[in-house]
């Protein structure tokens, strides 16, 4: 008896056709879903950075600053204690103040605004309360926008609680 093994050309062509049809249906849905996923991911990154800054400030009983750069969609967290010749509590990373995190928004996500009083930075005191650059209490917000124009706002209350809207 002769044993034939393998697939016929017709069977292979049917399988390739099925894969092509399924791909034609799935890929556009995936492409339209991706910008919203990146926006949510960026918002969660900013929220976790704010929470990290607050927790570090309370744990170390130190001032921890957070600065946003809307033009480059970047942010930075550091212990604002004046180490290495820097000025303490000035919301400016100088001297050898320890950097906790540098962050960048995902591809195609813009940081539309970052407003904390009159600046784009703030700091947490040792009790976990946000202070504006002039030392007055208060919160603020960061607005992220994706390539489709959809936005997410990360709001920081004057009590130090942050949330995504």
What does the model show?
The chain has 165 residues and is α+β, with helices and mostly antiparallel strands. It has a single domain, classed as minor pseudopilin epsh fold. Helix content is 32%, strand content 27%. The chain is built from 1 helix and 9 strands, in the order αβββββββββ. It has one helix spanning 9-60, and strands at residues 64-69, 74-79, 99-104, 110-115, 121-124, 130-131, 140-145, 151-156, 162-164. It has a 5-stranded antiparallel sheet with strand order 3-2-1-5-6, with helices on one face. A 4-stranded antiparallel sheet has the order 4-7-8-9, covered by helices on one side. A hairpin with a 5-residue loop joins β7 and β8. It is elongated. The relative contact order is 0.16. The model has no long low-confidence stretch (mean pLDDT 92).
**Strands of the biggest beta sheet: in what spatial order?**
3-2-1-5-6
Q: Characterize the biggest β-sheet.
A: 5 strands, antiparallel
Structural class label: alpha+beta
Mean pLDDT: 92
| Structure summary, number of beta strands | 9
Helix content: 25-40%
Q: Give the CATH class.
A: Alpha Beta
Write out key terms for the chains shown:
5-stranded antiparallel beta sheet; minor pseudopilin epsh fold; 27% strand; 4-stranded antiparallel beta sheet; 1 helix; 165 residues; alpha+beta
Put the structure in a nutshell:
With about 160 residues, the chain is α+β, with helices and mostly antiparallel strands. About 30% of the residues lie in helices and about 25% in strands. It has a single domain (about 10-165), classed as minor pseudopilin epsh fold (3-Layer(bab) Sandwich), CATH 3.55.40.
